[in-house]
Amino acid sequence: MSALKIKKGSNKHSAYNLRPNFSDVVESHTLAVLVDNEPGVLARVIGLFSGRGYNIDSLTVAEVDHTGHTSRITIVTQGTPQIIEQIKAQLGRIVPVHAVHDLTVEGPVVERELALMKVEGDGEKRVEALRLADIFRANVVDSTLGSFVFEITGPSDKIDAFADLMRPLGLIDIARTGVAALPRG
């Protein structure tokens, strides 16, 4: 009889697979949490994150069903796949939470964010700011002789790029809404 030639870790279905099956790659995930619209619910959800040392990159909350008294909390957070699974499981155990959806893994998603940016400047900087706003499809919502307030909507990376270009032209203030997301289709 010949000896079995089994390489350790050669097959993920092998009983001899000694490789860890978890990843330590940090990923960004968008979570949609449907909750009862009542006092203290947001504090409980956010308390889960702060109590365990998880960070929130973006947070938006709004009532989505007035008659059913439900709200949608959209949270963008980062973590390893194990951390994200732990967050989803812990969110699901909070009593006023009806559903937790990880929009990042459930399929194509439409994500948008709104930002208002105040830019001060005159002369060439003012003309350049208006030219860039036109390219990025940003709207001028307020104008004075010394400044503009631009409104821009789109994915977060578009808003980041616009802000980076406006900084040398006199960007002095930004207000962002946070990500709003829905699955496609």
Furnish the topology, listing elements before pairings.
Elements: E1 27-36, H1 41-52, E2 56-65, E3 70-79, H2 81-92, E4 97-102, E5 109-120, H3 124-135, E6 139-143, E7 147-154, H4 156-166, E8 171-176, E9 180-183
**Describe the biggest sheet?**
5 strands, antiparallel
Strand content: 35-45%
Uncertain ranges: none
Rg of Cα set: 23 Å
How far apart, in Å, are the first and last alpha carbons?
58 Å
Structural class: alpha+beta
- What's the β-strand tally? 9
Instruction: Tell me roughly what share of residues is in helical segments.
Output: 25-40%
Element order: H for helix, E for strand: EHEEHEEHEEHEE
- How many helices? The count is 4
Rounded mean pLDDT is: 89
Shape: elongated
Describe what you observe in this structure:
Strands 5, 6, 7, 8 and 9 form a five-stranded antiparallel β-sheet that branches. A four-stranded antiparallel β-sheet has the order 2-3-1-4. The longest helix is centred in the N-terminal third of the chain and has 12 residues, at 41-52. With 185 residues, it is an alpha+beta fold. It has four helices and nine strands.
